[in-house]
Amino acid sequence: MMETSKIYKRVMEAETISKNGTILKNNMHRFIYCIAISMLLFPKIISAQINLEHTFDGYIAHGNSHFYTHNYYATGVLSTNQVKIYKEDYTLYKTVSITPPEGYTASGSVLCLSKNIVTTDNKLSFFIVFQNGSAPQNQQSMIRLYDENGAIVKDFGYFHFIIGVSFHKTADNKFRLSIAKHIDGEHKTEIYSLPGTPPSSPTITTTTLPSGMVGVDYNAVLSATGDAPIVWSIETGSLPGGLNLSSEGVIDGIPTETETSSFTVKATNSVGNDTKELSIFIDEETGISMLQIEEMKIFPNPANNRLIIECENVNSKKIMLYDMIGNEVLNQNIHDKTEINISNLQKGIYIVSIVSENKVIGSFKIVKQ
Questions:
Q1: HEC readout, the chain
Q2: Structure pTM?
């Protein structure tokens, strides 16, 4: 591949360039033409906010160095200018073709496979060192950063030979890149700022799960913070009969028997995992769609978004709802006919208490679907 200066020289040596019958003779037109050709010939270069912050004289070591591979592996088939990236299970994820600078060949191994550290586009990236033994001493090596599509993220220039490449995390949870080089007979360590942020392992935020009822559809979604994708599993124990946990964190199914099941769920992503002990209570089937207490009707049961109470001879009555661990979730006065919005309640079983003159005159269960 020709460098830009060589392309420009060849264009300047041409006596004329013809376009639509017009002879372009001035250097400006030739220069524009040169730039257009170079954009077609050079490998794609993407922009990244990687900025040189400081240069040390000598080799500077960092005690807090990290290589974030996100459970991928990379190996270079450098004689064919290819990099093979493998998944955690050792299956091939992608083969990346690279184009070395003119006169240079890829050497050594693929360095610092990372993700979301040097860029923020969720693509894997890696470093390649190139060498040219016939070049001037301080230009015999160069290093480039590529993404998983073979695009150049950044060219870090020429040097005699490289000593090391590493990441390190700062006190404000940002990353820097260190590249130690040998230039003009001396060691130099360049420190670059990076736009990425550290990957975050899961933290499970679900603390309780709704109760269920035999023969009634059950559905609950587990939640966690952390970098996606998060994969869910049962670490210990088991779910109630008839229920299953998907890898996306959805517990669903139709319970088959009355029981209380305790279990530990596990949330895993590419950088870590978290576990949480939970339980689900499955109650017996009510077998009712409407309940009547002291000339009072409460329906439907099971209910979706609303619960209707019809009563006669109202005397300072109110309805109170409790979840299956005893938390009060609703407290409302009722009249001759009252419609109660329960759309904000989670699916599950609730205890309903009817209170009149500070006395509970009835208590029963409803199912929120």
A1: CCCHHHHHHHHHHCCCEEECCEEECCHHHHHHHHHHHHHHHCCCECCCCCEEEEEEECCCCCCCEECCCCCCEEEEEHHHCEEEEECCCCCEEEEEECCCCCCCEEEEEEEEEEECCCCCCCCEEEEEEEECCCCCHHHCEEEEEEECCCCEEEEEEEECEEEEEEEEECCCCCEEEEEEEEECCEEEEEEEECCCCCCCCCEECCCCCCCEECCCCEEEECCEECCCCCEEEEEEECCCCCEEECCCCEEEECCCCCEEEEEEEEEEECCEEEEEEEEEEEECCCCCCCEECCCEEEECCCECCEEEEEECCCCCEEEEEECCCCCEEEEEECCCEEEEECCCCCCEEEEEEEEECCEEEEEEEEEEC
A2: 0.48
